[in-house]
Amino acid sequence: MSDPAQVLRDFKSTKEFFVGIDSDGCIFDSMEIKHKECFTPMFVKHFKLQAVSKYARECWDFVNLYSKTRGANRFPALVRALNLLRERPQVQARQVNVADTAGLEEWIARETKLGSATLAAEVARGNQALSQVKVWSDAVNRAVEDIVHGVPPFPLVRECLAKLNEFADAMCISQTPADALKREWAEHGLDRFVKMIAGQEMGTKTEHLKFAAKDKYPAARILMIGDAPGDYNAAKKNGALFFPIGRAGQVMHAWRTWTGTVPDEVTSVGRILRLPPLPEVPEPLRGQAFALVEAAFMGDAGTGSELLGSLRRLGPELDTFAMIPAPALQQLHMDPDQPVPNQGDGGFLADLPDAAIDALVALVGPDADTPLLSVEVRHLGGALARPAPGGAQPDVGARYAVFAGGFTPTPELVGTVRAHAQAVKDALAPWHASYDYYNFEETPAGASTVLPAASYRRLQEIKARYDPDQVIISTHPVWPATP
Questions:
Q1: Is residue 103 one of the residues assigned to a domain?
Q2: Taking the complete model, does pTM exceed 0.85, yes or no?
Q3: What is the CATH number of the domain that holds 404?
Q4: In whole angstroms, what is the distance from residue 271 CA to residue 255 CA?
Q5: Which end of the chain is less congested by CB atoms within 10 angstroms, N or C?
Q6: 3-state SS assignment for residue 464
Q7: 136-151: buried (b, 16+ CB within 10 Å) or exposed (e) per residue?
Q8: Over the chain (483 residues), what is each successive 10-residue block's mean pLDDT?
Q9: CB 137 within 8 A of CB 119
Q10: 18 and 65 share a domain?
Q11: Which residues contact 6 (CB under 8 A, 6 or more apart)?
Q12: Residue 95 lies in a domain
């Protein structure tokens, strides 16, 4: 099967700017009619949810219209809706059998083009776990084709697209099947305003932008217009250089050298990351392992690009650096949106010489068999190193901080992950600072391990005066000073 996304890779710029535009909810006010009149009835019918149709409708609408997954590809959305429905007390009380999603989740985890064609091919190869999903998806497509007509574009859309064409290459970027998109855009004569219509068959919205626009336009001249978090996520996956994990040693050494050259306005992380094969992980990264450099720079795009020059010359596999608004920084580290079971540990490093990097890579690099999802070294200095008046820890003299952690979905993994995290600390013990950092010291220990000696003695005196009976206890307790 040929790659449907190849046309995006082959696309060549003709204008100074690139604008990607979602369709449903941005060009057409069609989200409500599609989901409430097409997706939801077929959801109830083909998954035999008639006895709990009210709750099925609520779950589907929540997932696809009124939550952060609005606008998601239909297959991950189906998984979320079924799993939410299964948890509802009303459904459990009625003893309704909600379809299992294991087979669908397994397919989502390995398929990079979630669409009707790839689903049909998977079922044709004998994957009966997806046969019910295919029947439902085909029924949805027929319902959309039958029902969704005469929904005009939003007011002034045509005028905006015409003006846009004077300066930018415009492209429809959507998770709707391409046939439906082309039919809707042609019905209203809007297809002439875009260079291409990219649907779910060509990959995710993030992949659409990557293939069609990245490195073909300056980063500051690429715009994504959308109405859902998925559109925002597609546009803002910025702030890191991803390298194959086999280059971990080279990348970590280069990053450490680079940290000695950048100004205080730069903060960065050298990281070895193993991403799980889960639907929540973007397709280009899912199930992959990387050495990467994450960084943020408080300054203009030109200076930031110059500062990154030596690292970019290493030839990363993926470069997502671009100007982003400050609130988007919370997504830079790619932490899960929801709480997950995990264990980890870390501490301060007085220095990070070549021998320390070599010890780290030997333990968690490309040849390691480790449950650790992430092992990161953070560059400190700057304001942290400048003493501030007051407080138990007025400055941080350590030059780097290390943290190692992994998921622990079963109790058996807790001890395993803890042991591997401790092994990282042990390997770096020769360069350990004289004290650690509260947020990264996750194993029970006295406050004397996470505070400078003078600060700890002062807190002991305060403790003896105001809390001699140890009413207040923490994971890192301060014991009252004895006379």
A1: yes
A2: no
A3: 3.40.462.20
A4: 10
A5: C
A6: helix
A7: bbebbbebbeeebeeb
A8: 82 92 86 93 97 96 86 89 94 95 89 84 94 96 91 91 93 87 90 91 83 83 73 54 90 96 93 83 77 90 88 87 74 76 91 96 94 95 82 82 92 93 95 80 74 84 90 82 72
A9: yes
A10: no
A11: none
A12: yes
